[in-house]
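Lay summary

Proteins are chains of building blocks that fold into shapes. Our project writes down both the chain and a compact code for its shape. Here are two examples, one after the other.
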Amino acid sequence: MVSEPMNNTLCPKCGKPTTKLFQGKCKDCFLENFVLAEIAPVLHAKMCSTCGARNVKNKWVEQGDLEEIVIRTAEDALFVHELADDIELYIEPRARTPYLYNVHIEVDAILLDETFHQELETEVRIVRESCDMCSRISGGYFEAIIQIRATNRIPGDEEKQECINIAGSVLERLLNKGDRLAFISSSLELKEGTDLYIGSSNAARHICKEITSHLGGSFSESASLQGMKDGKDMYRITFSLRLPEFMPQDIIDYKGRIIEIRKFSKNVTGMDVETGARFTATPDDIKGARLVAKRKDLPKTMLVAMENDDLMVLDPDTYETVTVKKPVMFSAEPGTEIPVVKTEKGLLAVADLS
């Protein structure tokens, strides 16, 4: 360390007068054996053989490619003198084998108003082992289960896949923030839905919030005691996630109105099939509504003619010509097929998606 300025001080080593002492010596004596930087001749970098994470001070962290791991290992092990300022590093890894690198290092710095340059060589050996996350995944470790179900129905394959995609996106985000338990250890397909086994209960909770935000529905959680670790109770949490009863592009009968659902989240939005009016309600509001049909299952029939706001179409069951109201945002031409839905009110033409 640099001491406070002093007058008429003698250097303990050479006896010359000096106004400052640098680590107990005058500037000339200090610089005689000065070493700008040091590094061990051999370094070891622990790297996960599965995911490529790197172990730093007994903590696994996400890392880049192999060369980046080598550079980071050299940077972490490099000692640069505490009095040095304006430090610039140049590190060049050179592979001898896939897991053995020679590393050339150049250090430039300013110290005591002088510029110093030093070159060093070291060797980085890559040690392959399994990280904490991959070890737990391979061992089937999990802290939480997400049970993906739907209200009064069985969730479809596309819905379940969308839930899994959302889960993957959430887990990637949490993993990048340092949550090493943000993973799916396994999944189980059941008649009533899908179960996801999640590494951490915190990650599972984030997933449930994201799914219900995007797809609607709700979730609840319950904990069960699994044992003790380090004197603390260990719990496993089950998240019961219920997707909404109705999905986008479901056509429902709500209090006599035929509504096509367009979006289902905190609020339900859709369109009145008869009038084209916008529909908005809460999930609780539409409890008791009845599913009439799904858009993808609607029959298509021939559009015979158009006259003002009326369409003449063939009834898909009787093949008789019937007149129906022209929907809003309708763009089909006579001679083409259009989707229709049969209701208690009769046959209705369904508007194009927009």
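And here is the second example, written the same way.
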Amino acid sequence: METTTVDIPTGDGVADASLTRPDGNGPFPAVLLLMDAFGPRPRLVEMAERIAARGYLVLTPHLFYRAGRAPLFDLSRLGEPDQRAALFEQIMPLVNALTPELFNRDTTAYLDFLAARDDVRPGPVAVTGYCLGGTNALRAIEAHPDRIAAIASFHGGYLVTDAPDSPHLGVGSITGEVYFGHADADRSMPPEQIATLEKALEAAGVRYRSEVYEGAHHGFTMADTPMYDEQATERHWAALFDLLDRTLPTS
């Protein structure tokens, strides 16, 4: 297995990304891994490598590339709870600047990059996303239903809002399968919003699973943060691989 840095041309410049390739000649089914708000770092490479070990080529783009190449932040104290607020002061302007329109345009570039590779199997890909990436995973499959077979969103926030472009309002376009692993007591996705999301999915006839990970906090999959929950993370891996095995099998 090998992880390298690649550059992806977009309508607004060049997105830096990591590409994790399994051993062998391929072609491999592809998975797009969408980062959390803290951005590209060794933890995301570890996660990509665990997915690649099952026979998937994994692309992890830097969603904030418009602000410069990664790393944009000093994450050396990411594991310290009292540093979280200071980090988010730097991060939130970039989160807010990544509008649905910009993200969907970027997603086209990421999918085109994968489709052009000889070592990627033709056809739809899958997406797994975390936090910010979990929200954008839903937007991705809504915007590209013919190119994405399935998405998994873990501790995704603000999937339901009062805005006219709230992610839950676009589920009617989805033709693939979706999975949501919600964090318990997540202020960015409380129980009433989970219920609204599920109601929208059911009304649209979308194939989905939506589960609440009891006792887990927002960001529970990230082993380099204080939010990490080992038991919930292993549950997330089981759910993700179940979804991939059914919707994008390696053989």
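What can we say about the second shape? The first strand starts at residue 2 and ends at 10.
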